[in-house]
Amino acid sequence: MSEKKSPLPSNQEKSSWFAEQNLDNWHTQIMAVQARFDQEYRGESFELPSEVEAMPIFHDYASGNLTTKIVSPFWEIAKPKKNQKCLDIGCGVSFLIYPWRDWEAFFYGQEISTIARDNLNQRGSLLNYKLFKGVELGPAHQLKYEANQFDLAIATGFSCYYPLEYWEEVVKEVKRVLKLECQFVFDVVNPEQPMAENWAILETYLGAEVFLEPLENWEKMIKARGGKIVKRQPGELFQMYKVKF
Length: 245
Hints:
seven-stranded mixed β-sheet; alpha/beta; Rossmann fold; 245 residues
């Protein structure tokens, strides 16, 4: 039996709203995403309608099994190299999870969750003070780093919460902080995947609306911003891209 789906606002409806705003007024969406993840990092439960809690995807989420299905292993297409300066945008607590110490690459982060930022800044240097270079608090379209500073930039797990218009500004910032010919790895939800719509419904009820944008639109945006797609890697929900500028 197929799962009952709740209606989601169309991309056109949401994009029209964003088009009427300037960059400074993306604050509302950014704060909604921050609140959604801060609540999760605090270990607090979410109050959801019974029909959402009845969905199989919610049971995967509640049990922790969903994470393994949706994580994007960026190192499979762009493994950080020794002494490279790497920027993880929307990093969460990745330095505590992924094998940065094995890679011997320098880790810099930027994050909108104050809880994740504080946690990493408190614990990261204790794990490896040489490799861990700290996490800044801020959104992806306003990177708090110098131009031409990084050998690799990573942004996984959050592109879906913002429209393409916003990501045009993110890509512009990524290009600014990357060294020439260096790589950017990011992922986007593939709306053609069977779990995509139900996952979007779940995330919306968790507090962060999701944009289900066709992959071809993402690829057009990247090329329009001067990016060359070097590699694609599909997953159960997200598709990863390795891009060179």
